[in-house]
Amino acid sequence: MSAEKISKAKPPKKTATKIIKLILIFIVILIVLVFLFVPAFISSKKGNRFVSGKINNSIDGRLDFAGLSMGWFKGISIAELSFADNADTISIQVKQITIKPRYGSILTGNLSFGQTTIDQPKISINLNNQPVSRQESVGVSEPIPAKAGYLALVMDVVVNDGNFKLTDSKAKTVELSEINSKLSLRPPGRQTDFDINLAVVNSKAEKSQIHAEGKIKPDKAIRNWSLKGTTGDLIVEVNDLDLESLGSILELAKIDVQAKGLVSADLNAVIKDGNFENLTGSIKATNLDITGPALNGDNLKTSLLNVAVKLKSQQQLINIEQFQFDSDWLVGQIGGMVPTTFSSWSDFLTSESDVSLNADFELDVAAALSQMPHTFGIKEEMKVTSGKLSGNIKANRGKLNGQVKLNELAGTIENKKLALSQPVTGKLQISTDKKKIRFDELDVTASFARINASGLLEQLKYDGYVDLEKLQSEFGQFVDLGKYEISGEIVEQGTLSVNKSEITGSGVSQVKNLRITSTDGTTAQEPRADIKFAFAVDRKTNVLIFNSIETNASLGQINIDKAVLPIGGNTQVPVSLDISAKNVDLEKVKPFAVLFASLPKETQLAGIAESKVSISSDKNIYKVTTDSTKIKGLKLTYPGEEPYEPNEVSLVFEAEINPQGTTIKNLRLESPRIKVNEGQFTQKNESGKTILTGQAELDYDWSAVSSVAAPYLPEGLTLEGKRKDFVSFLSEYPINDVNQLLPNLTANAKLGFEKAGYMGLDFGPTDVDIQIRNGLLKIVPFETTVNEGRFNFAGQVDFNQKPAQLKMDEPLQLMTNIKINDQTTKKLLMYLNPIFADAVNASGIASFSCEQLTIPLDAAAQNQAEIVGTVSMDQLRLQASGLLSTIFSAGGTSARGAVITIRPTKFVLRDGFLRYDDMQMDIGDNPVNFKGVIGLDKSLDMTVTLPYTADGRTVRLGQETTSQRIKVSLGGTVDRPELDVGKLLEGQLLQQLEEQLPNLLEKLLK
């Protein structure tokens, strides 16, 4: 039985083996077919179309080639390749590309393209008429995490007769021609060779030849390319390079620098383990001219620049055989033997080797400052005529001597000669006994300051003194130190300790009799401020730690406890800073707020403030928070306004600041009559724009807000009522152009009050919806009461205009039956007619229909205001109007107690002048007509038609007269009108002659 079972099991085994053999044969055949088919397919026309189609579907542009062929042994060949992007910015043409990749190396983790030859590549980039991207702000970039895997790139590239042409946004072109280069790129641990030759062609078709070659072998342990651990040779040659021709390349690289001049350079270096073992080189330049934003519009120039360097390693020392710098206004040289590695002067002075150093320099200060007045803040009218800054340093094992001196600094301003009263000097003497370093002398002396220090490096004692008034009087002659006059003294004493791991220090400073005065005479002063501090610098982590800073002054106390501040770019230690302020007397702070925070000097401020603010960081995000900022006993008073006296004001907020912007959240302001809740504000920069958003819940009493904001509100404006409103806004505008904030603003808000008063107009309860869309503010139609009459308005403000203007949407009956009072006559109606200028006890009813209204929101542009409308008044009574009295007394009558009616009169206000053709006033039953121009500058050029005729009759309403009424001119100003009464007297004289002439003739004939 068992034998039978065994015999039955054998056939399946043979079948399985046969199937496996067939599968293996099929796989081999498939591999052979793929091996044969893929190159054949790719090399065919159909394969060429397939490859080009796939590429063109995935790129922004079009790529073409005359032929593409592939062979497992002969490699890949592309003939007549061309590419053009859709924006017509980039154009590439290549005659032939040949690649011989090593396919097997890919399986071992190495990407090897083998020998790659590129024949006659021509690349053209045209940025003309393309938008230039803004220069990105320099910030701390986020580290890119390294991938776990590593792919070694191996390639040999040969470029034959290449050409690169770049046209910038200003249509300037740079051309790199005759590019013939070889590159043998190998992974770290193996030698990479390169040989680059090209010519830079300037606008005059002149060529500058550039050659660079080298052999570089980075350390195998370093995955990323770095000079550390690198060994090799480097040669660079540049011949008469025209720097101006590189402008297009600098723009493409987003380097905002403009340079002119010719530069030649020759550099030959031997590098060993990341250090220059031998270095010989020279740089020569003529007519050098460099400018850019960093120089604030200045130009750094020199007709000649020569730099020569020659270094050579000898065992553990570097022999500086030559290092010389020579230009029109700066000359310097360094020589000596220094250790190959030393991180401080301590290492240098205590070296066991025979080290030495000799260096000196001389700077023509007048030449430097004349080239860069804005960079150094030189006064515009100042001409620096002389000045020299020189110095030298000599050091050898165990000793170091140095000195620096600024002398002969002089200049002229408005033909007045100015000069420093004495030179500024500095001296340094250091000695060592191979274990400890001693500062025998460290002195800085000037007419306005001195600093002295001496002692061991581990316990260096120093003291200093600065006379602020003398500092300003000496350097303020040349440098614009601001619009303030400063006087006072600063005295400081302290101790420094320096060792390999840290630098520590402590001391006390005193600021005595500080006095700051602005050009308008505003003065702020602090009789004495005492400052105590203690700090440490961790030299390994590059972290500055303030253990404490205590400031005690008459205006209050400010303390900083345990502040941690990174001072190196590579440190990972976050910022940590706690600031506390106690007993800050706002009455004593007020003068400083007037000087530096634009607080109106008329404002009276009192109260005691306390605050705790914490500052921290997380990478490049800084957080500022306070939950304990309070003012007790605050009293804010502005002349003519009710004082704002809350018992206590508190402020809470959180802020985040990063390179992209600032966010303020959870802002809460608490006071009895002004509250801000849930305040959220964000400002961020992206894609060349600043995006500003915000929202807040407001709970306030207008009377309190009016007291606080009185200096910034129109004079005489009063507001009353309690409100709860929600405000939100958004604005996107170009970075660094805050003037575009309002033109791009979108916001929603409500404005309302229970009562408001302005220029004698008393408004009743009002609610107005305010909508702003892209800088266009819409005031939806609303109606309210004013002086027991009605007020209607609807309009808009376009902040895109300069200046922004308030405009009415359509003709409106703006005011109906409003009551007139003394304030309206003195503030408004006096510009309508001069009879209102000195009137008292005014009463009456006025109406105003407006056809057109345009009012600029900039007071300086008041002459751009335009108003076209019709005004009328009834039941008008005036007392003590000098002009009316003059008009009627000249006619032997009086307007006292008369009721006046001003008939509907159309007027036009334009270009700073109000005009009308006929304003008839019915004064009692006597008509008086006004015609002419009234200026916003109060000037008058008018004609008054009196209620008297040339024959001496008085004209009354409803009575016809055949005689012409007397017209007189009205000049002077609104508040001092000058009526020409000569015409009136002439008429009266004629009347008397007519009456007396018959009697006189009768007497003569008798």
Tell me the β content.
Answer: over 45%
Average pLDDT for all residues: 83
Tell me the Rg in angstroms: 44 Å
Overall geometry: extended
Largest sheet: 51 strands, mixed
The secondary structure category is mainly beta
Total DSSP helices? 12
Q: Any low-confidence stretches, pLDDT <50, length ≥5?
A: 1-10, 132-151
Helix content: 10-25%
Distance between the termini: 193 Å
Overview of the structural elements:
- This protein has a 51-stranded mixed sheet that branches. The chain has a 3-stranded antiparallel sheet with strand order 37-40-41.
- The protein has 12 helices and 54 strands.
- Among the domains are: 88 residues; 157 residues; 227 residues, no CATH class.
- β28 and β29 form a beta hairpin.
- 14% of the residues lie in helices and 57% in strands.
- The N terminus is likely disordered.
- It has 1006 residues and is mainly beta.
- α1 packs across α2.
- It starts with a helix and ends with a helix.
Topology:
Layout: H1 2-43, H2 45-57, E1 61-64, E2 67-71, E3 75-85, E4 90-100, H3 103-107, E5 110-119, E6 122-126, E7 152-167, E8 173-185, E9 192-201, E10 207-217, E11 231-242, H4 247-252, E12 258-272, E13 275-291, E14 299-314, E15 317-327, E16 330-339, H5 345-349, E17 356-364, H6 365-371, E18 382-396, E19 399-413, E20 416-419, E21 424-432, E22 437-445, E23 449-456, E24 460-467, H7 468-475, E25 484-498, E26 502-518, E27 523-538, E28 543-553, E29 556-566, E30 576-585, H8 586-596, E31 604-618, E32 621-637, E33 648-658, E34 661-670, E35 674-686, E36 689-701, H9 702-709, E37 718-720, E38 722-734, E39 745-753, E40 755-758, E41 761-763, E42 766-773, E43 776-786, E44 789-798, E45 805-808, E46 812-819, H10 822-827, E47 840-856, E48 866-879, H11 882-889, E49 900-910, E50 913-923, E51 926-935, E52 940-949, E53 965-972, E54 977-979, H12 982-1005
Parallel strand pairs: 5-7, 6-7
Antiparallel strand pairs: 1-3, 2-3, 3-4, 4-5, 4-6, 7-8, 8-9, 9-10, 10-11, 11-12, 12-13, 13-14, 14-15, 15-16, 16-17, 17-18, 18-19, 19-20, 19-21, 21-22, 22-23, 23-24, 24-25, 25-26, 26-27, 27-28, 28-29, 29-30, 30-31, 31-32, 32-33, 33-34, 34-35, 35-36, 36-38, 37-40, 38-39, 39-42, 40-41, 42-43, ...
Helix pairs in contact: 1-2
